[in-house]
UniProtKB/TrEMBL annotation:
GO terms for molecular function: uridine phosphorylase activity. Transmembrane segments: none annotated. This is Uridine phosphorylase. Pfam families: PNP_UDP_1 (PF01048). PANTHER family: FI09636P-RELATED (PTHR43691:SF11), URIDINE PHOSPHORYLASE (PTHR43691). One of its GO terms (cellular component) is cytosol. Residues 18-242 form the Nucleoside phosphorylase domain. It is an enzyme of class 2 (transferase).
Amino acid sequence: MEDPRYHIRIDDPEKVGKYVLLPGDRGRVKRIAKYLENAEVVGDNREYFTMTGYLNGEKVSVMSTGMGAPCMSIGVEELKTLGVHTYIRIGTTGAMQPNLKLGDSIVPTAAIRGDGTMDYYLPKSFPAVGHFDVISALKEAAGIIGNPHHLGVVLSTDSYYGRFFNSKKAAEEVDLFVRAHTLAVEMEVSALYILGNVHNLRTGAILTVREELGEDGAYVKQAGEEYEKGLEKSIQIAIKAIELLIEKDKGNA
């Protein structure tokens, strides 16, 4: 039988918490883990770099997932076998609405399923929706931390550069989604949310705007100091949301 944790290379359930934060970039794991007590490396293989520490006495982990739905799905499927029940993606995103500014936080309530990975699980007619408890905790945490934040639908796509090759098709599709008030585009939320439904897991996400739109609909501002400040705030919001969930879970125990 194939090793159920072949990719993340974590064999002991005691090495990870039941609450896991999921950045895409492995370079962001330590940046997040600094908010945990006694954080240490527990796994390092391929794109999956994992650290575990403590938050309010509860074990919490941070694991990078790499880019895209396939990598997200593999990571979550393997974490699930270790008993993880709560997942929050901490990612970056490109704005699709002009009112979104660099460094703003987005809490996706749902995602348009532009990926292909989740088609192997469920048809497109099944929606990718976050868990109410996690979304609520993120919204409350955003208010506490104080960063500008937005709730709504995002677009999850598999292709980063495909829009340049087939620009006409991309423009038509994006225009439709923009008119439907889609907030932003990214690559992993749909996979996380579908897996949450399939496996009865609690899932949520917080994204930081990395590209800001100008009046003509083109990106005019990217990354920079405003983005970095916002990203740190988004990380703090995710940490606070985990604290709120831990507190709620202990109260319901």
